[in-house]
Please model this.
Amino acid sequence: MSLRKFVLGALGVAVLAAPFAVSAPALAEESLYLPKLVYRTGPFAPGGIPTANGAVDYWAMINERDGGVGGAKVIVEECEFGYNTDRGVECYERTKKKHGGALVYQPYSTGVTYALADRTRKDKIPLLTMGYGRSDAGIGSAFPYVFPMALNYWGQSTGIMKYMASQEGGIEKMKGKTIALVYLDIAYGKESLPIFRTMSEKFDFKLKEYPVTFPGIEQKATWLQIRRAKPDYIVMWGWGVMNQSAIKEAANIRFPIDHFIGNWWSGAEQDTVPAGKAAIGYKSATFSAAGTDFPVIQDILTHVYGKGKGKGKENVGQVLYNRAVVTQVFIHHAILNAQKEFGVKSVSSEQLRWGLENVNMTDATAASLGMKGLGPNLKISCNDHIGGGGVFIQQWDGKKWNIVSEYIKPMNDLVIPAMEKSAAKYLKEKGVSAVSCS
Amino acid sequence: MVENTVKPGEILLSVEDISLSFGAVRAISEVSFDIKKGEVRAIIGPNGAGKTSMLNCINGFYHPQQGTITYKGITRSAMKPYEAAAQGIARTFQNVALFKGMSTLDNIMTGRNLKMKSGILASTLWWGKAQKEEMEHRRFVEDIIDFLEIEAIRKTPVGRLPYGLQKRVELGRALAAEPELLLLDEPMAGMNLEEKQDMCRFILDVNDEFGTTICLIEHDMGVVMDISDRVMVLDYGGKIGDGVPDEVRNDQNVIDAYLGGGH
Amino acid sequence: MFYREAGQFKSSYKEDQAVFPILQDRVGVGLMLLVAFIGIPLLTSEYFISAIMTPFLILALAAIGLNILTGYAGQISLGTGGFMAVGAFAAYKFATFSIAIGGAETTIPLVVTILLAGVVAALVGVMFGIPSLRIKGFYLAVATLAAQFFIEWVLVKFGWFTNYSPSGIITAPPLEVMGYLFDSPGEKYIFTLSFVAVMALAAKNLVRSHIGRGWMAIRDMDIAAEIIGFRPLHTKLSAFAVSSFFCGVAGALWAFVHLGTVEPEAFGINRSFAILFMVIIGGMGSIIGSFIGAAFITLLPIFLSNVPPMIGWDIGVDMISHMEFMIFGALIIFFLIVEPHGLARLWSIGKEKLRSWPFPY
Amino acid sequence: MEDIIFELQFFLEVLISGLLTGSLYSLVALGFVLIFKASGVFNFAQGAMMLFAALSLVGFQELLGVHWTVAFVMAIAVMVLLAWCVEKFVLGKLVNQEPIILFMATIGITFFLDGFGQTLWGSDIKVMDVGLPTGSFDMGGIFIDKLELVAGFTAGALVLALALFFNKTKIGRALRAVADDHQAALSVGISLRTIWIIVWSVAGLVGLVAGIMWGSKLGVQFSLTLLALKALPVLILGGFTSIPGAIVGGLIIGSGEKLAEIYIGPFVGGAIENWFAYMLAMVFLLFRPQGLFGEKIIERV
Model:
């Protein structure tokens, strides 16, 4: 009996010692290694699954259709972290040196983004956080390896503001109006607070802040308060289970649903479908379009799903899926840039950084990559890692998301100074100096 | 802390007119008695007579609703058990109350806690003062271990010991505090004859060698009469007899309570 | 055979009460320290050091902290994450606090910062330990959740704690001790290891002193402990204080050394649960058990998620993750059935076996 | 004057919706109480059981295309099977262990169920449609969530049913005997195994009902397991062993946290619901360490 226990103990020791043995096989072939941190499990899996599928399917399509990028095969490897920051860091450390070195990371988690900002800087690997992450990281000289492309949360906030103003017939009409900001009370949700406060002062509207306790399962009290406050608009910074719960509660208090606008992580099929009829008319921001009427999405359907592969057909064309595809197209574009500039097939992460800094997505490039109309046109530079994106507003009609607004540019006069201030503070605290962009 | 000294033969503790009840149940009613310095004082009585409750009152675990307790000349109001311990009152329990997860040595060492002064910081370092203190007390405890003849089980977790030995360890723990007044709650319950004899010997030795005043509760009349100087008898929470063993043995009330009272 | 203590006589109480009275143990621990301090940094990969060893050590430290409270003093707590958060944010406040002495800006030295953070956590721990005087067992466990959620809320809500960072995420300053910058994963690992080794020894010393005996007495039978003179207030609160100190330091290390940046959610309720699991799986009332438990809880999932790709089994990361959960759960149950008192007990049984090996009697 | 009426009405609305939400918490807490009462096990896995039950129901509906009532029956069968497995592979092997060990074992069960449920049915969000009403109706200016009203009635009915079960049936009386005294129960010939299987099955059924309610509200997804945390303060307040306690505790916590969020929250920055519930429970414990309906403990030496 006791000997059995001992044997078990020894077995346990062996199990614990096993991570020592992890090693990375080397690959001789020309390749591009793109590790993908994903969360297909855990409380945020509903959002994590379509984003992961979009990314993986895109590269599977590229490998099938073109045999890789510029002759180099793309190796995509998923690492599950369950939206858990320390597992995310572990994934990063595990994958960063495999297959000759990881080229870029895209964690889709604010917590992991913050945790990786320092590490990627040291390891000289770009961190592409398209549409999320640190709002101040758009200042390329302070964050040379972070690329929060398209628009950060501050820019998005101003974009949503502009949309509401346009609905009312001009920004001056917002004076005296009440806007309720419902946000998930964690780092991600709070990113938009400072800019809304600034705008509230500048445009003279009343801002009511409603933090929702993580993870946002129960929001009754919040919505009772909103009902009493009778706001003209509700803006939501939610993620995961919070979203559909909020949409249902908004319907319960009979708030005019088309005056309820989510940010672009609060506007996907995963948020509206479970909310049922309550969600019809709900709006959200987005920087990418939904649907399958784009060459690149069609190619995925033909080359991946057509051959019986692919991760999840039901996700194709969904908001989060397409958004992930857009991000991959930008990476694709950056790889092509780097290959051209440095004349190699297997670009290094450092070379890819150059590629990302020289992204210039025009209508022509977008068309050549099959993405025309799917995502934004951006021009990245050494100092500007955002690239001048903008925001669309989309609306849920009960079946699909439709874009209902013009392309709205952010109020850069508000956003950029705030970013610069915050970035300067970061540099000071970290004791690092800005890189030169000249 | 009380620093009065009481000479042998003088009254160490006196209980006056105390009553204790739990809701409607009266555990002790209007009992007075005293304990003299240096004596072996016994409290006897049938089950439920209020003996353990009396000890609980003396060491501050229960607070009587009425009456006073005077220890070393100071009458105390509601007092916490650890304050009683600090004044030199130690005890053992009816159902052994040892620290099951610790070894015999550690259990007895806990009895020394009131005398150990080194703080948390010093203890984390171990080196120096804290270690010296620990060693001094260890020496004292080893003497007790020798005295109780439990050397062989020094490092054994007490949970694994047989009942008789546990009782002995518990006595050791109480002794380690170098008490002035030692309260023993049925120290011989559940023991065989040989173990009882050992225990009697220890009790008398403690009384002789250290001059410790002892107050004990016991069922076994024979044992009580042999080793005590004075005996008090409780029944239904009231006092029915008090005096030297011979007096008590012949007291009609006591005989009734034990023999004819329908118990 | 190899592990025999026969012939090792102790001639003084001092020797008898040494941390490791048996020669083989002393050699073993010496070897382990040697491996930990020299072998691992030299021989293993950066991944192993920075993604496995460093977090493992920090969580082991937190587990020691909780073990002091739960394993030694018998007070179940689910507020560990909260106390770690206090440590992390206090360290951040101390580190960003600078005073001008003689014109030059002076900051508090890093090691002092981390220790001070522990002290702040200890104070907060004492505050939330007060209910333990009346509430016991699972009721107390749930009451400590109040601490967990309250602390998290305070840190999220009041910008002062994060120096008004818009997202509420704090960024650690560079790790500089007396002019030396701990920068590479190896250096950071050594930094952590030094802290953990010293504090583990301190914890071991504490639990075998009269203070530790007081905790165990309260744990085993609180009424008897009080009657023989332990003051429940002092004893319980000192356990809360010491435990929170350890957790606070662990939190500070987590923020400063491991992640570099941290948000309050990193010390959420899941963290508290994970550390409680470490203590129970490793063995309550055992310092070495805290290490074993931390290893089990942090390394096993990583190991499990590494195995299928290693053996070339492509089943998708989500399936791996689900299986990881299932195997992990099953193993917890399995180990409890085999040895309910934790892996530390299994370890000591193993030692006993080795003592007589290869002869069973 | 109008203001006062409006305020009064608002207060009433907060109170009512708080009570209704509270009854939803009670549903989760009820499963804990059942198991703790009968076996002294603090079942950490109740949240996971709720998710697993709801996942099974939706899963059968999707997979087999059957009516939800059929899926409901199938889900019950799954929960009974689960109870049998728990007894067979976990609790049965841990008889006479300390409560903390059993608690830890239920943590193992939690991990296993979380993984197993997602392996079988996937981690994606699923829509729970068993025909429960949505939206709210207007009662003199007070909006009442229809779903929560149904949940409130269900909770009430469930408690009534459980009370009948415990008091009127032979098995119920046996369960109570076990709760009072394991030895005595064994000596009159009740098998502890059977009791455990029944209790865990009933807790599974309660979990399924709770899962349906919460699943209709939030969609069936992993986050449902986090609701177990909402049930803990309810348990403290109500006492671990009292079924009415779970209901009353739920009502107090539900209304208490809503009132606090609305009337105290704005002064301190909001989002106080979570810790307020725990704080409320803790302060309450300081005065009654055994909970609202728990039995008073007299200490002896």
About this structure: Chain A touches chain C through 59 residues (CB under 8 Å). Residues 19-27 of chain A have pLDDT under 50 and may be disordered. The first helix of chain A runs from residue 2 to 17.
